[in-house]
Fold this protein.
Amino acid sequence: MRLTITDQAFEKLRENVPENSRLLLSFDDGVGPFSKVGICSLETSFDIIAVDREVKTPDYDAKLATNHGEWQYKGYSDVYLDDDMKLDIKNNQLVLSGESGILDSSITVKNLVKQAG
């Protein structure tokens, strides 16, 4: 599984997450400490979450290759993902798409990295 991040999407990520953080592509299904609980929706929703490198994330047990380093995701959520995906900007929103079309048209970025000091 591979994710290509366009230059525009990468710039938006750089504006919102610290350079030394670890990134998670989080399927928002109510599982784990970073997911909203009790969301009932027909839409598939993903977030990009920046965490400190040393934070334990046992729910994120699978690795995703990107052109800007390795990310992690919940392995069971791969049924909602495609083998070849792209993260891009459309209408000032981060959009995740793949061979099957748009997977999420409004990706939220969450910075959960602790600030030094």
The radius of gyration is 13 Å.
